[in-house]
Amino acid sequence: MTSPSSPEQPWPVRTVARKVAEWIGRLGEVWVEGQVAQLSRRGNAATVFLTLRDPAADLSIPVTCPRDVVDRPGLELAEGARVIVRARPDYYVARGSFSLRATEIRAVGLGELLARIERIRRLLAAEGLFDVVRKRPLPFAPAVVGVITGRDSAAERDVLVTARRRWPAVRFAVHNCAVQGPTAAESVMAGLRKLDADPAVEVIVIARGGGSVEDLLPFSDEGLVRAIAATRTPVVTAVGHETDTTLVDHVADVRAATPTDAAHRVVPEIGEQRRLVEGLRARARHLLGTRLEQQERWLESVRSRPVLADPQRLLAGRADDVAALRSRSTRTLTHRVEGAERDLEHARARVAALSPAATLDRGYAVVQRADGALVRDPAEVGDDERLQVRVAGGRLPVRVDRSGTGEDGEP
Amino acid sequence: MSIPEPTAEPTQTYEQAREELADVVRRLEAGGLTLEESLALWERGEQLAELCQHWLDRARERLAAAAPQD
């Protein structure tokens, strides 16, 4: 710190100038409302000088600012315009002049701007341009993504880098154009026409970083909104900050919060998709495996059924039947034979019983007349009759001789 | 009751073979067949079982081939 100034040790002008500059700098950035009193643009000088007047207090302050702050579209700065200015006090040491250094000038007529946008919104909404039913689904994994954005803008980088990381196979058709100022709407539309006409482009992303209401004004341009509505290709908008809403957001098929979000919406994440596919593949194979196992078990059970596994059983059954039948038939046969034998025995016995042979053996004899009739009573037989006498050993011809006596029957 | 034709048509699908095999087993178990019929039926059953087994083995091979790192 320099020592205090005194007549004996006065500060040089430069010190005083520096200190004044320091003091003034302490004010910091301020928003000032006022009216443009004088506005001088000397040719294409980089800096513009104007005077900001306080209409209520008849005071004014000189203001300097870069040309583009004044030439910003939608601002149409003219003398007498009511404006609000974001500025910082600046003490130009070389000439000891003070002015406000402006970084943003807004027309007070902002309200009108917003009102105008609202009117357009209602008009287009009434025409049904914003209806949900018009929203088209985005393609799952587009081969070519159309991108309309400012040249080398952060928005462009976010979209491209994020999309490539998620889906390396994606390709882009980038249309760089003005995304601010009076030509912005028209250049975005030109991009839209070009990309929409390209059959390879399956989705179009309109990406722009944040900005003031005026900056984003072109994105509420009626012509642009209608152009988007008329495209064949689905459109994703990522314009301004999440909190900003422009009319293009209403008409877009998908409104992304940020350029990065837009990338997330238009391309799938490859790792995730690969896991998904792997999962499905495993499940399919598992289902098939269990189905196969089921069938194999069924076949096994069928093959183990006795009728198949053990056909001998069939035959065995039959063989048993045959064996049973055979034994039965043999049994019946033997019975019958035995029966027959018994009958024979009986018959023979009866024959034997009836047949005189046994009696003859016992010494009896059978007397038959010539005609074979048996003689049971001597009276039947005449004298000298020739008879046959059968003895055990055979037959004997005899003649009746009653000359003797002793015929039975006489006392 | 017709005796099934012994050779299996090549175009017979697995399901057809399986259905017929189930039917053969049902009829054999129901009984009431002449010896000749049950023999023919039994042969048919064996043939069908062989066919089904063949189908399943091939399916198993194809499944394994599809994903060797099973």
The amount of beta strand of chain A, in percent, is 15-25%
Annotation, overall tally of beta strands of chain A = 13
| N-end to C-end Cα span of chain B | 48 Å
Largest sheet of chain B: none
Q: Could you give the order of the helices and strands of chain B? A: HH
Sheet with the most strands: spatial strand order of chain A: 1-2-3-5-4
What is the total tally of β strands of chain B?
0
Total of DSSP H or I helical runs spanning 4+ residues of chain A: 13
Assign an overall shape of chain B.
Answer: elongated
**Structural class of the helix and strand makeup of chain A?**
alpha/beta
Rg of chain B from C-alpha positions? 15 Å
Mean pLDDT of chain A: 88
Number of helices of chain B: 2
Distance between the termini of chain A: 208 Å
Radius of gyration of chain A: 68 Å
Sheet with the most strands, sense and barrel status of chain A:
5 strands, mixed, barrel
**Quaternary status of these chains?**
heterodimer
Biggest interface in this structure?
Answer: A-B, 18 and 23 residues
Describe it for me?
The complex is a heterodimer of chains A (411) and B (70). Chain A is 43% helix and 22% strand. Chain A contains 13 helices and 13 strands. Chain A has helices at residues 13-25, 67-70, 110-126, 154-166, 184-197, 213-216, 222-230, 247-251, 259-266, 270-303, 306-309, 311-354, 356-361; strands at 30-40, 47-54, 59-66, 82-92, 97-107, 144-149, 171-176, 201-208, 235-239, 254-255, 366-368, 386-391, 394-399. In chain A, α4 (154-166) runs parallel beside α9 and α5 (184-197) runs parallel beside α7. Chain A starts with 12 loop residues before the first helix and ends in a 12-residue tail after the last strand. The model of chain A has no long low-confidence stretch (mean pLDDT 88). Chain B is an all-alpha fold and 70 residues long. The longest helix of chain B has 32 residues, at 35-66. Chain B has helices at 14-30, 35-66. In chain B, α1 packs antiparallel against α2 (35-66). Chain A binds chain B through residues 281, 285, 288-289, 292, 295-296, 298-299, 302-303, 305, 307-308, 311, 314-315, 318, and chain B through 14, 18, 21-22, 25, 28-29, 35, 38-39, 42, 45-46, 49, 52-53, 56, 59-60, 63, 66-67, 70.
